[in-house]
Design brief:
Layout lengths: L5 H9 L5 E7 L10 H16 L7 H13 L2 H4 L5 E7 L2 E7 L6 E5 L5 H8 L4 E6 L4 E7 L2 E4 L10 H5 L8 E5 L9 E5 L4 H27 L3 E5 L1 H10 L10 E2 L7 H32 L3 E2 L2 H9 L3 E7 L5 E4 L6 E3 L8 E2 H11 L3 E5 L10 E5 L2
Parallel strand pairs: 5-10, 10-11, 13-17
Antiparallel strand pairs: 1-2, 1-4, 2-3, 5-6, 6-7, 8-9, 12-18, 13-18, 14-15, 14-16
Helix pairs in contact: 2-3, 10-11
């Protein structure tokens, strides 16, 4: 998958908007389940058309729907899906985003794009990344408590020892053969000449250092996500010793990820990540309760909306999958409740989240069972 980052949200928020169309749906990765996806997509497209009747689009209506119709008939596209799909359109703008998690069906016409499902993915506290490392290459994965997906890296990404070291790579009498594979139980076997051992060790150290550096700069720093190392036990200490990535967790998975199936690999990764996730949410919840007692926090949506407009929200906790339909006046903070099917109304939690992020605050999406409040949000104020 292509990495979905905050730049995706920034692009959607920066587009000059008139009438905004947002469509979300779950999709399937494989046949025959993916045969139903184009059908469900067309049904949601009809919902968009119905919602558009509530507002005068003039001649723009047909033009806005044209790329949606073209996508519906793109057979190659539907054969290469992830777990979810998001499609956005406004005048002179059309964007398709494949999402590595399942999203709920939604078709919205409003004055701004509905980005909460993407924000839920990007701002959920359970997200993490995994680097699967061997002596000759590495792979990257991203996951949450629901599963794990491989990240398809750009062609220019130096993910092999040859690409990473180039001319610095020692010419060696070495063969690295991978036995097993998905569902197997063996790792990599290395054959070499003892006289070259020091050079081989030096190559491994240089490769691990180069891998650690590029992963930090290109992956961890932009995402800010915890990173788990999956590698054979004899490689764990060496990678940790050359690593300068502060997002790398001390505990790793002592296994070659190619030697086990994806489901088992995801379970092993979550066993490491779950305590980190739980602790982070506990800290956020405790901080909110402390702020609430001191008068620097609120779970009242009207108060939080006003504070967001004034730039006073430091941290905002949002209940996942919760939608509160309405309209927020950005100048005054006045809230009007309404129906999401009407193009003038959107999700208030989504609108407030956008304001918080735009003013330098942090938004974290939290499962309902772990929320500190019952109102759908909890805000800690700067002052």
């Amino acid at each position: 998958m292509e990495l979905l980052t905050t730049s995706t949200l920034n692009e959607l928020n920066s587009v000059e908007k008139t009438h905004c169309l947002s469509l979300y749906m779950p999709t399937h990765r494989s046949h025959p389940d993916n045969l139903q996806d184009p059908i469900k997509y067309k049904n949601l497209l009809r919902q968009l058309e119905s919602s558009m009747k509530h507002k005068d689009f003039g001649g723009d209506g047909t033009a806005l729907l044209a790329p949606f119709e073209a996508l519906a008939n793109d057979h190659d596209f539907w054969n290469q899906s992830l777990n979810g799909l998001a499609v956005f359109a406004t005048k002179n703008f059309f964007k398709v985003v494949k999402v590595p998690i399942e999203v709920k069906e939604l078709a919205v016409v409003a004055d701004s794009f509905h980005t909460k499902p993407l924000r839920q993915y990007l701002q959920s506290a359970d997200r993490y990344q995994v680097v699967g490392l061997s002596l000759h290459d590495f792979q990257l994965f991203e996951g949450n408590r629901h599963g794990l997906s491989k990240i398809e890296l750009p062609d220019e990404f130096p993910d092999t020892i040859k690409e990473a070291l180039g001319e610095e790579l020692t010419e060696k009498h070495l063969t690295v053969a991978s036995y097993g594979g998905v569902g197997g139980n063996k790792g990599n076997m290395v054959h070499g000449h003892g006289s070259r051992k020091d050079e081989l060790d030096l190559d491994a150290e240089k490769f691990f250092r180069a891998a650690a550096d590029v992963i930090y700069e290109k992956i961890s720093k932009p995402s800010g996500l915890p990173l788990i190392l999956a590698a054979l036990a004899e490689h764990q200490n060496l990678f940790q010793s050359v690593n300068k990535n502060p997002f790398l967790l001390k505990e790793g998975i002592a296994i070659n990820p190619n030697s086990i199936d994806q489901k088992r690999f995801a379970m092993m990764a979550w066993e490491i990540m779950e305590p980190v996730y739980t602790q982070n949410l506990q800290i956020l919840g405790d901080s909110f309760q402390e702020a609430l007692l001191k008068g620097r926090g609120s779970d009242n949506i009207t108060q939080v909306a006003k504070a967001a407009i004034e730039g006073r929200v430091d941290v905002l906790l949002i209940e996942s999958d919760r939608i509160i339909a309405g309209k927020l006046a950005a100048a005054t903070g006045i809230i009007e409740r309404g129906n999401l099917e009407h193009p003038e109304f959107d999700d208030l939690l989504d609108d407030i989240s956008e304001l918080v992020v735009a003013r330098g605050g942090k938004v974290v999406v939290v499962p309902k069972e772990l929320m500190s409040t019952r109102t759908g949000l909890a805000a800690t104020f700067r002052f």
